[in-house]
Amino acid sequence: MFIEKLNEAFNGFINLGGAAMMFVIITILSLIVGVKISKAIEGGLRMAIALTGMGAVISLLTAAFAPALESFVESTGVALSVTDLGWAPLAVITWGSVYTLYFSFICLVVNTIMLIAKKTTTFNVDLFNIWNLSVIGLLTMYYSNDNLILTTLFVAFIYALMLINADVMKPTIDKLLGYDRNNVTTTAHPSLLIAPVVMLFNKIIDVCLPFIDKYDFNAEALNKRIGFWGSNFAIGAYLGIFIGILGQQSVAQIFILAFTGAVALQLFALVGGWFGPAITPLSEGITKKMSKRFAGRKLLIGIDWPILATRAELWAVANILAPILLVVAIFLPGNTVLPLGGILLTVLAPALLVVTKGRVVRMTIIGTILIPLFLWGASLIAKFVTDTSKAMGNFPAGLSSDAMISSVDSDPIEKMLAILFGKAVNTMDIKLIGFSVLALAGYILLFAWYFKQMRKENEKLEKENDEQVA
């Protein structure tokens, strides 16, 4: 009887909806870690408002674009039937799930253990972006028939790699941003997990195209020249016009799509900025407790990737890659996603910036080569994103019931691994298990090689700094 009542209460809590549920959870957790009640409630409210606002923007975009996209598919036969909504639907799904709090706890435990064992010097306070890890975890559960042990181990393993990556990137970040040796800021953002693959192609360019750096150019000058025409407003308008023409819409409808696209992309950026402040009170409460525990040790503080956004190269390459992404999407075999919300590849540009140290030509070449990974990743998770959105009541209004949505977002390799591992454990198929073992071994070896290369480059940077001081 007690268990039944507890289950009913839990289901009633879940049925409140993602926004209300997260309001309660964020508020209570903030109070537990010592946040003042007013700040705790503020954080909970901000999270609920951000989730509600993002859902409204997604519905606005999909309601306007759906008829044109359906017409495009019918008239051309091109199977780009999945609507990309960028990172937004994944954030809404994950922050509307209680599992995200579980994964947050696992990540905090991993971070604490690694700090105690001195396997990392980074304390990651970027709690909001735990949702990226939650996507990987939820994918693993989705395909493994809710195998929580496998999911927990995989999330913990990926998070450990993120923390080590934050350590090895720190000297390069200091160089790029002009930080001195006393600065403790770094980033452990999940999107930077693509850095080993970027490093691999960067080394290939060193061997095959060493002369390419002669043709590099001033990214800041390019950004100034582009101006408004590279803004979220403008790119959204281009998308609207592009989709309208592809969907053979009337001139009036093309104008509506252009303006709606402009508004939606700008609102994605605006509403997306609400999530960070929502999690700040909770993050600060945990940081205070961790600071007391590790008093006397110098810790690096991991925050969101936009610390790199001051570099003009990042935005120049994001703008250059946007039209390339659209063209590749149309012709890429195995792709079913037409990029919309994820048209600006800010999930790839930070890793390109760090590994190539801001060399725009290299960033563009490597970015173009890696675009298929992100499109295939978005195609593979479309069923998961669609089914989960419907199950949680977050499926965008304006789309037909048989439509599919996805996200051109970070961590395509990790998502592919999550699907592979999940299917292998669920089916216990010998071939899938074999592929899983080989894939994991290759993944670990790639990271081991990448960490070794980064540490070598860090030694060079340290010598250069010592010479400049001398």
- When the domains are counted, the total is 1
| Average pLDDT metric | 82
Q: Could you give the distance between the termini?
A: 75 Å
Structural class estimated from helices and strands = mainly alpha
- What's the overall geometry? globular
Number of helices: 17
Helix % is over 70%
Low-pLDDT segments = none
Which sequence of SSEs, written as H and E, runs from N to C?
HHHEHHEHHEHHHHEHEHHHEHH
Radius of gyration: 22 Å
Lateral strand order in the biggest sheet: 5-1-6
Strand content of the residues, in percent?
under 5%
Strand tally, please? 6
**Major sheet description:** 3 strands, parallel
Structure at a glance:
With 470 residues, this protein is mainly alpha-helical. It has helices at 2-14, 18-32, 37-76, 88-95, 98-116, 130-144, 148-177, 195-208, 219-226, 232-246, 251-293, 312-331, 349-356, 360-380, 382-391, 412-427, 430-469; strands at residues 82-84, 122-124, 185-187, 300-303, 337-338, 404-406. It is built from 17 helices and 6 strands.
